[in-house]
Amino acid sequence: MPATEPLHARNGTGLSRPGDPLRGLDAAPSVAILRVLRVTLHVGFAALLGVAVLRLLVSNERDPGRYALAGTALVLAGVYLTGTMMEKRFAAGSTARDPRRYGVLWLGIVTALWALLLAGSSDFAWLAFPLFFLHLHLLPRPVALPMIALMTVAVIAAQWGASGLPAPQLAVVLGPLFGAAFSVVTGLAYRALYREAENQRRAADELRRTRAELAATQHDAGVLAERERLAREIHDTLAQGLSSIVLVARAAEKSLAAGDTATAAARFALVQQTASENLAEARNFVRGLSSPHLQETSLVETLRRLCDTTETSSAAGGVGLRCRFELDGTPAELPQPYRVTLLRAAQASLANVRDHAKAGNAVVTVAFLGSEVTMDIYDDGIGFDPAGLAARMNERTDGSGFGIRSLQERVTALNGSLEIESAPGEGTVVAIRLPLDDAPEREQQ
Q1: How many domains is the chain partitioned into structurally?
Q2: Could you tell me if 270 and 258 are in contact, meaning their C-beta atoms sit under 8 angstroms apart?
């Protein structure tokens, strides 16, 4: 309620947290000055009240009314202390009850008690000066200034009455006037410092709020990015492997139904092999590692093996697909993100050829051209219209159609390019180009 309010910047507890980079905004010089003024105001009020009570009891020993005035002074001290303590507890977050709504009432009670004391003894006249600051802080200026003027007149009248002179002396008039003028100027400076401290507190709160919102946004973006990464990895590894298992298992079931146990056994062996590879992929996936194939062999050997596996699994599924690998140029050592992207691109593209293209031939060509590495996946299947590819993928609700979008995101992340050339009845070519100029930087990511 009293003038202590601006000295407790409110960010929940009122003070900045240790280690907070915005702490300096709350610890501004204006706040320190306000704290000194607050302490000075309270100490000054207590000292003036104590001196006045002491003088009252010593100099008016024969006046029986001095005890009533001393009791009134104790009531004033209690009311003043209660108001300041309530405000301090609220500012520190110890209570949720805001005492500021009672500030004017509190000030009115304090002023009324002071007026009773002043009427009984002029020794309490000097308490008016700390009260001037409270009026300037808690009341609007058009109300505070007339109240200060009225209190100044009361002080002059009390001093004049105590002097016993028929007319007030010049010192009796000028002393309270100069004191009131000084209090008003100091109080206005206090209000200016208070506004500055409040503005700094609001700026610090806004910066904290903005920082919290930015952190939340970055967290959400990280969650979405990780979700996309997981979706790509699952689609390009586990989903493709499970699809092969389903396809070969169906073919094995047909062989068993036809009584061809040898073919069924071979196909079940292929199912077991594919499941084992998928299990290895899953374990490495959980550990955050790359493909186990790339850990064991080079990219060229892995792609060559992928073509052989695709041809075998297609044959087991009753699809007569011939798949071969071609190399152009001298293989260069590629960063891990490049090798993973090219492998996943080949896996996804060959899976599409096997499942949808109805092709007889597929060719995976990797070319090392010095400043870039390229990979083309060609098939002589039924082809499609690339113009409607995006719309068809968006219409699918069964989780399929994610491969091209996933591949595009992988290639874009490496500043590469992806082109798909196809037409109905003319086969398909998926062309990928990855620049090697910033490959060392990509290796660090």
Answers
A1: 2
A2: no
